[in-house]
Design brief:
Blueprint lengths: L10 E5 L4 H12 L3 E6 L2 H13 L4 E5 L5 H15 L4 E4 L14 H29 L3 E6 L12 H21 L4 E8 L5 H4 L4 H9 L13 H8 L1 H4 L6 E4 L9
Parallel strand pairs: 1-2, 1-4, 2-3, 4-5, 5-6, 6-7
Helix pairs in contact: 1-2, 1-8, 3-4, 4-5
Length: 256
């Protein structure tokens, strides 16, 4: 069955591939044979991910871009095409969050978060999808959503709104690109906090999260790799599009 998940010969573009979750997924795609472009606002951290991939025998290259500045995305799209000749997989993993209460929210902060989580992803996808259509070889677009996209979480109003919109965008684009054999799906991760984030989570909030997570633990970033590889593989998920795939320890199945 391993051939179902073989990505040898495929090229993946990982926007936000230097983030905790984006990097883990990028490494998973590489482990199955994909050549990976790691794209991030911070070139140094993107290069660190590339070094880890290369140390494991994979092929990758770092590119600097900010999805909230689409001119940088246009530039690196050209650079990636020159490096790889095109791409088959697009991973959208950039993200910005804030705990500002709704009544204290400014239009500037709203715009900053939406420019990354929604507007930036939508129009960065447009840039890369146009090339995928021109290539006429199909492909897979994978968006990273959140459990807050379906049932909003307290303290993250703007983030929740942006991810809810991303679910709708995912399903709309699934229909838009189906005639081109380009599949569009989203992964809905549960709680996968980086170590530094775990340290600032209050005991009360951790208990609340665990009370809604049947598996009673946080997720590890590597546990997203299987879902991403599945969605990236035409052989494994060639008839799967418009799907919102939960990897959340059961969080979405619980109320009280």
């Amino acid at each position: 069955m391993s051939h179902l998940f073989d990505l040898t010969g495929k090229v993946a573009v990982a926007l936000g591939g230097n983030s905790t979750l984006g990097a883990a997924i990028a490494k998973g795609l590489s482990a199955q044979g994909a050549k990976v472009a790691i794209v991030g606002r911070n070139l140094n951290t993107a290069e660190d991910v590339v070094k880890e991939i290369e140390a494991s025998g994979g092929e990758a290259k770092a590119f600097q871009a900010d999805v909230s500045d689409l001119a940088t995305v246009e530039r690196i799209a050209d650079e990636i095409e020159a490096w790889s000749g095109g791409w088959d997989i697009l991973l959208n993993a950039p993200g910005m969050n804030s705990t500002t209460p709704y009544l204290e929210l400014s239009t500037e902060e709203w715009d900053n978060i939406m420019d990354v989580n929604l507007k930036g992803v939508v129009f960065a996808t447009q840039i890369f999808a146009k090339k995928m259509v021109e290539q006429q070889r199909g492909g897979s677009i994978i968006n990273i959503s959140s459990v807050s996209s379906t049932t909003p979480l307290s303290k993250v109003f703007t983030y929740s709104a942006s991810k809810a919109a991303m679910n709708s965008v995912t399903q709309y684009l699934a229909r838009e690109f189906a005639p081109h054999n380009i599949r569009v799906n989203a992964i809905i991760p549960g709680f996968f906090p980086a170590e530094q984030n775990r340290k600032i989570l209050s005991e009360e909030r951790i208990n609340s999260i665990m009370g809604h997570t049947p598996m009673n633990r946080f997720g590890e970033p590597e546990e997203l790799q299987g879902a991403a590889v599945y969605l990236a593989s035409d052989k494994a998920s060639g008839f799967v599009t418009g799907e919102l795939l939960r990897v959340d320890g059961g969080f979405g199945s619980m109320t009280i």
